[in-house]
Amino acid sequence: MATTTNARTGTRLAVDWTACDGRGLCAELLPEMVGRDDWGFPLIASDAVPASLMSHARRAVAACPTLALRLEATGGS
Q1: Which end of the chain is more exposed for a tag (fewer CB within 10 A), N or C?
Q2: Cα(14)–Cα(60) distance, integer angstroms
């Protein structure tokens, strides 16, 4: 997964594993932050979402067909 030196937002991506069914749409919409394992489930970067990718992260969250992807505060910026 790519890492960037852009300003961080204090927000990270999180997955509700009971809801996720591994369709991979998040990885297609946000490949800079989300990879896929051998079964298609997301591998989320542990870094805070860079400010430059926040709009893409919001789009990936909104597009998740099972509502398994969310943005959450990291507790500090």
Answers
A1: C
A2: 12
Domain ranges of the chain: 13-73
Two tokens, residue 27: 């990885």
Strands of 1-77 (E only): list them: 11-15, 34-36, 42-44, 69-73
Looking from the CA of 73 toward its CB, the CA atoms found within 13 Å total 3
- pLDDT, residue 9, reads 75
Residue pLDDT, tens place only, 43-66: 998 889 999 999 999 999 999 999
The CATH architecture one would assign to domain 13-73 is 2-Layer Sandwich (3.30)
Q: Could you tell me the two tokens for 28?
A: 């297609």
In total, the chain counts a number of residues equal to 77
Residue 49 Cα to chain centre, angstroms: 8
